[in-house]
Amino acid sequence: MPPYLAAGNVYASAGPNMLSQAVRGDRALVYVPNTKSNDVWVIDPATYKVVGKFPGGPEAQHVVPSYDLRTLYVASSRVPDGGVVPVDPRTGRPGTFVNLRDVYNLYFTPDGRQAIVVAEAYQRLDLYDPRTWRRTRSVRFPQCGGINHMDYSADGRTMLWSCEFANRMLVLDTATLRELREFPLARASDGMPQDTRLTPDGRHFLVADMHADGVYVFDGQATRQTGFIPTGRGAHGIYFSRDGRLGYVTNRDAGTITVLDLATLKPTTTWRIPGGGSPDMGGLSADGRVLWLSGRYHDEVYALSTADGRLLARIPVGRGPHGLTVWPQPGRYSLGHTANIR
Fold first, then answer.
1. For the chain, what is the domain count?
2. Which of 23, 104, 12, 39 has its CA nearest to residue 319?
3. Which tens digit of pLDDT belongs to each residue from 16-68?
4. Least packed by Cβ within 10 Å: which of 14, 116, 130, 134?
């Protein structure tokens, strides 16, 4: 049995090339949403060439796989005109824009019955029926300015949310959205927590903080903060190797990626983008050999070898590239964001 299956990896079904029947036959493409040019650029990962472009809605932020992996949604957030553009991953073609208002980010409940729209500007979470896109409920969290990124505990019962403009983390009950607790972040007085991810062993949450220049560590049920890992200026995105042994933390302001040993939660090496860059959000190729990242301030995309951090390609794209998605992805179902797939 491969080690990532034997070791209790919550992403065990998203190992290298473990593509489900739902995504086999989908076009292999990288979708890059650009917040300033309001479009999506499409890259062929085999040639590193741009092969298409289409409108992504006003202020396109992230490309999010649906729970069943059959649709990709471009989330756009400009108030009051944001919404989602559905994309057919079989063809790579976009559908009709759906106005939902301020879709900064998009998640799905563990049972797939509800979509959770992160309406950051309104400080609230909007729940929708993902089949009809009719809103069923809204809950506002004024104490969590800039409610932003989230992940679930291993059992799916607890959510840990970053509050980008409030320098704190918010813990919610998944079923009720009731607040369970919150954590002020003390490492930086003006902290800006971003990407939040559960480690493969389910024992820790990692939270990248752009102003603290590193990653906060919480226990796997988000009951307490247990540590902090310095990484680099502008720590922003968090990704995991397909075998569950390494973490990749993007340091947007430093132009680097910190590689973490997930067994010890210590950095092992730092990859520097030659000539500088602003690595932001992205994901791994299906085989885990390439890490794709948007260059937020440089209007480009980077492809790096996960074997040694070598830059394989630097690809010019639109203005303000953000939450790109690599497709297809291994796994059974999507919990949202750019590639939170289990």
1. 1
2. 39
3. 999 999 999 999 999 999 999 999 999 999 999 999 999 999 999 999 999 99
4. 134
